[in-house]
Write a structure and sequence with these properties.
With 193 residues, the chain is of the alpha+beta class. It contains five helices and six strands. The chain has a six-stranded antiparallel beta sheet, covered by helices on one side. The longest helix has 21 residues.
């Protein structure tokens, strides 16, 4: 099974260090309970005992996706890094509530999961922006294969990523690029009461 061995070797290689069709659907209130408590907290600080002077959070380690695209290796563990980056930007840099950050973190997790599972890329890019009462999260990859929203049944154990994105995001879509695509989501920023 040389093909399997080649694939396993590809995932063992270390990547280079990172360099610093829309769907619109009306739905209920933006901030509603998430489907799982697994997305409740994502620590952004370095582990206890980290050396003084060492970077202390994901933005310091990987870069700020609100300033420029952050390139991450296309491996399952990168989903955790992307979630911590999203939480750090939404709460720490933009000053939004942790409850709102839960939704952004869920969307990042699903976008990254799709990029890692379905594109065969070595890396992907994460970018975030805030403007006009919305935040936008983008994941760029070199594949031009378009994601497909499939019907989901109660007992399905996989294939729920785009379904969750469709339920949580205010808008989402895919832009084809000269080399790959950008899958994006937008969330309305709640008004402060």
């Amino acid at each position: 099974m040389a093909g399997l061995e080649d694939t396993q070797q590809l995932h063992r290689e270390q990547p280079a260090p990172p360099a610093p069709l829309a769907v619109r659907r009306p739905h209920g209130p933006l901030l509603r309970p998430l489907p799982s408590p697994a997305y409740r907290s994502f620590p952004t600080a370095a582990p206890a005992g980290a050396e003084g002077g060492a970077p202390s959070g994901p933005v310091e380690l990987w870069g700020n996706p609100a300033v420029g695209e952050v390139r991450l290796p296309s491996r399952p563990e990168s989903a955790g890094t992307a979630r911590r980056l999203a939480e750090s930007v939404v709460v720490g840099h933009w000053g939004m509530s942790p409850r709102f950050a839960e939704h952004a973190v869920l969307l990042v997790s699903e976008l990254v999961g799709n990029a890692v599972r379905h594109t065969g890329a070595r890396t992907f890019g994460l970018r975030m922006s805030r403007r006009s009462g919305r935040i936008r999260i983008e994941v760029r990859d070199p594949s031009r294969a378009l994601p497909c929203l499939m019907p989901v049944r109660d007992m399905d154990t996989s294939g729920r990523g785009l379904f969750l994105i469709d339920q949580v995001a205010d808008r989402w879509g895919v832009d084809l690029l000269p080399r790959g695509k950008c899958t994006w989501v937008e969330l309305r920023v709640p008004e402060r009461g």
